[in-house]
Design a protein that fits this description.
alpha+beta, 16-stranded antiparallel beta sheet, 4 helices, 16 strands, 15% helix
């Protein structure tokens, strides 16, 4: 991922084109073992609700909630970096799937061989009016290449609001994806565009270590070539609302506790309220707020 620019828009746009071409998912803690990353020290995520249902207003940052929102910011950028490393099912199956679509343009078809190239099952449903794929059901569907293999169980919804290839659409991935490292993560991701593929919007929901759903949107991440990252995005905290997170100094993710060991993030809320989190070491960080407070914490 050296010097690579990641935008969820471009990644998901490739999936949309392949599907249309077929004819048709941060908490807070001082405990170093609680890292606000739902994957840490767990082979499988115990998901109770991976769909965000919290506040959608901008957060007001002050000395009382700055620590919690800082940890939300950290969990969000870690998720964004992690999200850059995986591929969604059907991302590279568009051409193969076209064959199935041309044989059975209406109703339901078995697309296991085309989508689940390493095993598993995939059934796709076509819209009787347009012939577009509108639902894909995947069960233990294994795909990818080399060390970048994944297994997905869930549903992909593809809603197209028109007949043309550039009609407005909504694309939803909802399920469990297992990485090549054996860790299973909940995926709930929504992406949509207006006509002519304009006005596109995206969001991705994820579980924090407190088993509550958080949301990230407008996410971007790049790596400077020295294992340090620059990430940004709007991250929604279920209690306080959303914050805009940017990177002031590239951060590293080489600590044993999977926390940043160096770097600096800025998280901004409603009005002029903001906070800055400085990563002093793998265990220590300092939060400074717009109200003038500055405090040191350990994970």
């Amino acid at each position: 991922m050296n010097d690579s620019k990641f935008t969820v828009y471009s990644m998901l746009f490739a999936i949309v084109l392949s599907m249309q071409g077929c004819g048709g998912s941060g908490g807070s803690s001082d405990n170093s073992t609680d890292t606000s990353d739902q994957t840490t020290n767990n082979d499988t995520v115990d998901n109770t609700s991976d769909v965000y249902a919290g506040s959608e207003e901008p957060a007001v940052i002050d000395e009382n909630n700055a620590k919690e929102l800082a940890e939300t910011a950290v969990s969000g950028v870690i998720y964004v970096v992690e999200e850059n490393s995986y591929a969604l099912p059907m991302q590279s199956a568009g051409k193969s799937l076209t064959t199935t679509a041309s044989v059975n343009i209406m109703g339901t078809a078995d697309a296991s061989a085309e989508i689940c190239i390493h095993g598993g099952e995939a059934t796709v449903e076509y819209d009787d009016d347009t012939g577009h794929i509108h639902t894909a059901h995947l069960t233990n569907c294994s795909y990818g290449q080399g060390i970048h293999t994944y297994t997905f169980t869930g549903v992909i919804y593809h809603y197209i609001y028109g007949d043309g290839p550039l009609s407005p659409f909504t694309l939803i991935h909802d399920g469990l994806m297992t990485y090549s490292d054996g860790v299973t993560r909940d995926i709930y991701r929504v992406y949509g565009c207006g006509g002519q593929l304009e006005g596109c919007e995206y969001y991705s929901d994820y579980l924090g270590s407190d088993d509550r759903a958080y949301r990230v949107t407008d996410a971007e991440v790049s790596e400077d070539g020295n294992s340090a990252y620059i990430a940004s995005g709007r991250i929604y905290d279920p209690t306080y609302g959303y914050i805009e997170v940017t990177t002031e100094v590239p951060f590293t993710l080489e600590c044993p506790n999977e926390r940043p060991g160096s770097g600096r993030l800025r998280f901004a809320g409603d009005g002029q309220s903001y906070g800055i989190i400085e990563f002093v070491s793998c265990n220590e960080y300092v939060i400074t707020t717009s109200s003038g407070t500055s405090n040191s914490y350990t994970w």
